[in-house]
Amino acid sequence: MRAFVFPGQGAQTIGMGRELAEAYPAARDVFDQVDEALGEKLSDLIWNGDIETLTLTQNAQPALMAASMAAFRALEAEGLGIQEANYVAGHSLGEYSALCAAGSLSLEDTARLLRLRGQAMQEAVPVGQGAMAAILGLDFDTVDRIARDTAGDEVVQAANDNDPAQVVISGHKQAVERAAASAKEAGAKRALMLPVSAPFHSVLMQPAAAVMADALAGVDIQPPAVPLIANVRAEAVIEPGAIRRLLVEQVTGTVRWRESIVNLAEAGVTEFWEIGAGKALSGMIKRIAKEATVKNIGTPADILALKG
């Protein structure tokens, strides 16, 4: 069995998807449609801009989705579409890419939702008040306990359960710093403050969740062609109403990626295709499901290797 997985924020690079757009008209069409949906040339920023501007949340989110969908459309052009997958999943914003690939959301709606999501998440907390940190070498339960113990009157919580030894915490800047220091004292190999501009996947994102609830209420969501493994539940979902609700919960909830991959492996998935920019998910998956095969699809060469 096979799962298609889609990356989240942090995988962005200048030039991502350009080779695909040059090699596959269907991939080029993705960038054109995203540009039209947003009313601007996001593709020009992706291919010719500067990384600081691309990394802005409101740009990175639709840009990464565009790169993933360009790779997916190229796969389709080679006869390797959604029928090749038994499940889809995505890390944070990648969940939107997964839903788009599975036919649950239109490309245009996905682009507009991610632009709004990025803006709303950035505006939810004033710049400088929030932070995130990656804790390496401790398991989720340990980091979760440390976050609870060090929060005080502020917010800090385990935001991303990425793999057995990588947990990301999120919240008020000083609380995140306290929790990171406590994690080091508890034996963490490293505690790295992340270069992000907002405390994603924490309760501080509640204003953004409210914005997304309103936006998603007006968007058509179809049952996906294959089940989605939802971030906040780490379990399969196909019912549109449940998908809508879980996408709202995802803004403030923990990304349960480790559990999602464990559950996929237990369901019989032995092969994962990471579709889009970067290889971050592949590294996580190899540390979670050690027997699984992982393939990256982000360039024409990657697709030719699949066919070969």
Automatic annotation (TrEMBL):
Keywords: Acyltransferase, Transferase. Residues 5-308 form the Malonyl-CoA:ACP transacylase (MAT) domain. InterPro entries: Ac_transferase_dom_sf, Acyl_transferase_dom, Acyl_Trfase/lysoPLipase, Mal-CoA-ACP_Trans/PKS_FabD, Malonyl_CoA-ACP_transAc, Malonyl_CoA-ACP_transAc_FabD, Malonyl_transacylase_ACP-bd. It is an enzyme of class 2 (transferase). It catalyses: holo-[ACP] + malonyl-CoA = malonyl-[ACP] + CoA. One of its GO terms (molecular function) is [acyl-carrier-protein] S-malonyltransferase activity. Pfam families: Acyl_transf_1. Its EC number is 2.3.1.39. Belongs to the fabD family. This is Malonyl CoA-acyl carrier protein transacylase. It comes from Paracoccus maritimus. The gene is fabD.
